[in-house]
Design a protein that fits this description.
Oligomer: single chain
Shape: globular
Number of helices: 3
Strand content: over 45%
Helix content: 10-25%
Order of helices and strands: HEEEEEEEEHHEEEEEEEEE
Largest sheet: 9 strands, mixed
Length: 271
């Protein structure tokens, strides 16, 4: 008979570990470009938005694009600056641009127990419980692979809006209104897609970057609706992000047993 480790025991064990999630964000520098200079975006990797603990290797990028209202351009200027990945590009046309980047698959071989602890540590305890109830959790060693997808919005001069353009990432946030424009309320509705379809019941984290040396605020934790939508009550101006991970069994023929998809979206909440 298969022995099952209770979820509560895993939660207690995981809570004693010092391992932290390392999200990947695209943070424009500056957020608004003049329209006559390059767009510069930093790829930040850490557990504290919008900081970075280490730079992602340039060769890990499988796709980096600038998406405008009527087309896409590939970002080829990719480098490392200290602990940040640096993307630089001058678009051919003015207007609002969506910047997207994909970090390709990385693999980890681990035990079944390690996989369970990983899910809790990375905020996917819901997935762990779901797989446990379905009896699909592994009982022997596995190969887990993970990929990360990040997006942000940049104003490159003035021109057509592009906030709702789809980058085509496997897991992707799509704002349902212009995050850069003044709104009647401070709330921003965002849809999460997985493989192009709305993802229901996804656990989404949203938060604002610390301002003027103040301590970081507690993140909002949201659950997506049946049509994949969450409403972020971004009540204060500043740099905001939404992020999530989605865990699924690897497709047939893959060189792994489980896939972990990470996604983030960064925007500046107007005053």
């Amino acid at each position: 008979m298969r022995r099952s480790t209770p979820l509560t025991a895993i939660l207690i064990t995981a809570a004693t570990l010092s391992v932290a999630a390392h999200d990947f964000w695209l943070v424009p520098d500056p957020m608004a470009a003049s329209g006559s200079s390059d767009i510069v975006v930093r790829g930040q990797t850490s557990s504290a938005f919008p900081t970075s603990e280490s730079a992602v290797a340039v060769d890990r990028i499988t796709n980096a694009t600038v998406i405008g209202a009527s087309g896409k351009e590939t970002i080829t200027a990719r480098s490392i600056d200290g602990v940040s990945l640096l993307l630089r590009h001058r678009p051919n046309t003015p207007g609002q641009k969506v910047i997207g980047a994909t970090l390709g698959w990385r693999q980890v071989k681990e035990t079944a127990e390690s996989f369970r602890k990983y899910l809790v540590l990375e905020g996917a305890a819901d997935a762990l419980k779901r797989f446990e109830l379905a009896g699909t959790l592994p009982t022997s060693d596995i190969v887990r692979r993970y990929a990360k997808y990040a997006k942000t919005v940049v104003e490159f001069g003035t021109g057509p809006r592009a906030f709702d353009r789809v980058a085509g990432h496997p897991l992707e946030f799509i704002p349902l209104s212009d995050p850069s424009a003044p709104r009647a309320t401070t709330a921003l509705r965002v849809r999460i897609l997985f493989q192009g379809q709305p993802l229901a019941n996804a656990r989404i984290h949203a938060g604002r970057a610390p301002v003027d040396g103040q301590p970081a605020e507690k993140d909002h934790e949201l659950i997506s609706s049946a049509d994949g939508v969450v409403t972020v009550s971004a009540g204060a101006a500043g740099l905001w992000n939404v992020r999530t991970i989605h865990v699924v069994p690897s497709p047939a023929g893959a060189d792994a047993n489980w896939d972990v998809h990470w996604a983030s979206f960064v925007w500046r909440q107007p005053t």
